[in-house]
């Protein structure tokens, strides 16, 4: 019977690793999603800043075009001025030129305003590029970790799964009822169906067990359950070796 209990304990150790691997995969997937979300957010923010810069560039070009049109208009009036015959028309043309000059000044100020705004937007663009690069690095590193480090770990888990299949086959041949009980306890006890007994204490629930039950566990002639948590009890090998 001791052999069966030892096999169960080995199966439980592998089941613990398998459970941990599932939790690790879940955590890794969550971390991957978080890193990707951060990257996509930085990407969207950078695109928004680029769009902002592009809008200021368009605004500057539009204002430069308006300025060029005003300057062209001023030149035409100045050329016409040379052909004017009457004083009244001459004064009217001068007034028109002054009006256009004021308009040109306003448009030049607007261009400077656009250039200042674009300079600030480009500074923001530089920051967003750095943040995008950082977020991309985190995302790619997490992806590399999952593809390389996690894969190596999961490959080892797959190897242990194969070992578990062999142990399970032995248990189903030697003691199918015990294995069925193990499976029930695994579900009921959150993945710990077998507990080591150390110096008359169950390591599953940390409760002291009666001396008679402890002796039965030490003998290993039958399946013994903890009277407190109902886990299958396994003797501490060190205590057997030291004669405790």
Write the layout of secondary structure elements.
Elements: H1 2-81, H2 87-174, H3 176-188, E1 194-198, E2 201-202, H4 211-219, E3 232-235, H5 237-242
Helix pairs in contact: 1-2, 2-3
Q: What is the level-2 CATH architecture name of the largest domain?
A: Orthogonal Bundle
According to DSSP, the number of beta strands is 3
Strand order of the largest sheet: 2-1-3
- What ranges have pLDDT less than 50 throughout 5 or more consecutive residues? 238-244
Keywords for this structure?
mainly alpha; rod-shaped; 2 domains; 5 helices; 244 residues; three-stranded mixed β-sheet; Helix Hairpins; 5% strand
Give a short overview.
It contains 5 helices and 3 strands; from the N terminus they run αααββαβα. With 244 residues, it is mainly alpha-helical.
Can you give a write-up of this model?
- The protein is mainly alpha-helical and 244 residues long.
- It has two domains: 14-174, Helix Hairpins; 193-242, no CATH class.
- The chain has five helices and three strands; from the N terminus they run αααββαβα.
């Amino acid at each position: 019977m001791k052999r069966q209990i030892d096999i169960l304990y080995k199966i439980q150790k592998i089941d613990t690793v398998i459970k941990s691997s599932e939790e690790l995969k879940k955590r890794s997937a969550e971390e991957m999603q978080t890193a990707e979300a951060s990257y996509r957010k930085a990407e969207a923010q950078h695109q928004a800043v680029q769009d902002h810069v592009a809008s200021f560039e368009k605004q500057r070009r539009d204002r430069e075009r308006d300025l060029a049109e005003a300057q062209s208009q001023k030149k035409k009036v100045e050329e016409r001025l040379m052909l004017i015959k009457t004083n009244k028309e001459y004064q009217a043309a001068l007034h028109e030129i002054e009006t256009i000059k004021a308009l040109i000044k306003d448009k030049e100020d607007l261009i400077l305003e656009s250039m200042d705004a674009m300079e600030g937007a480009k500074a923001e663009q530089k920051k967003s590029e750095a943040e995008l690069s950082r977020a991309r690095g985190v995302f790619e590193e997490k992806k590399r970790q999952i593809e390389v480090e996690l894969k190596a770990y999961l490959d080892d888990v797959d190897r242990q799964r194969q070992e578990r299949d062999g142990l399970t086959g032995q248990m189903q041949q030697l003691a199918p009822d015990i294995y069925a009980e193990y499976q029930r306890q695994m579900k009921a006890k959150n993945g710990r169906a077998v507990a080591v007994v150390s110096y008359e204490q169950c390591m599953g629930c940390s409760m002291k067990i009666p001396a008679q039950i402890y002796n039965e566990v030490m003998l290993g002639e039958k399946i013994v359950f903890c009277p407190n948590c109902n886990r299958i009890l396994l003797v501490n090998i060190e205590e057997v070796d030291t004669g405790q």
